[in-house]
Specification:
Layout lengths: L26 H9 L18 H11 L6 H4 L19 H7 L1 H14 L9 H11 L5 H14 L1
Length: 155
């Protein structure tokens, strides 16, 4: 930046609003920008599987949106609660509970082995679910299983 050559023009400065074609600011363009769907992964739609009960889909939605009161989530709100995993007594967190815990890891590994899906134990839950959901494509029983089984593993 310090080495850049800035050239000033003698003309009048002009404010430009890029979201509109005219480059003029309009409130409606701000609302359009705010209302645009986020760039969330397509796989997030797969939590609403026709094969899973609604309560399971809601559970997964809460999990992916960090709504559960795990210590690592509560820390963002100023609560510092130490908690231990009920299965292995390590420090508790969403990542630990659903992926890293020995029990969770064994369940994931067994199901991945049975369905021919391989993910890293270091993946966070979103990456793991996305890997499952995108492993198979098309309309087959394996696709349905790969999209539904991880919902029940987490449940």
């Amino acid at each position: 930046i310090l080495r850049s050559q800035i050239q000033l023009s003698k003309g009048k400065d002009l404010m430009v609003w890029y979201p509109t074609m005219s480059a003029n600011f309009q409130i409606s363009s701000v609302l359009d920008k705010i209302r645009q769907p986020s760039n969330s992964m397509v796989s997030r739609k797969l939590i609403w599987s026709k094969w899973a009960p609604l309560k399971v889909s809601i559970f997964i939605w809460k999990l992916l949106n960090l709504i559960f009161p795990f210590p690592d989530v509560l820390l963002h709100f100023g609560f510092n609660l130490s908690s231990k995993c009920p299965f292995c007594h390590n420090e508790d967190s969403i990542h630990h509970e659903f992926v890293k815990c020995q029990l969770a890891d064994q369940v994931w590994q067994k199901m991945e082995q049975n369905l021919g899906i391989y993910t890293s134990p270091l993946d966070d839950i979103m990456v793991k679910l996305h890997s499952w959901w995108t492993h198979y494509s098309g309309k087959s029983i394996m696709t349905e299983l790969a999209q539904t089984v991880p919902l029940f593993i987490c449940w």
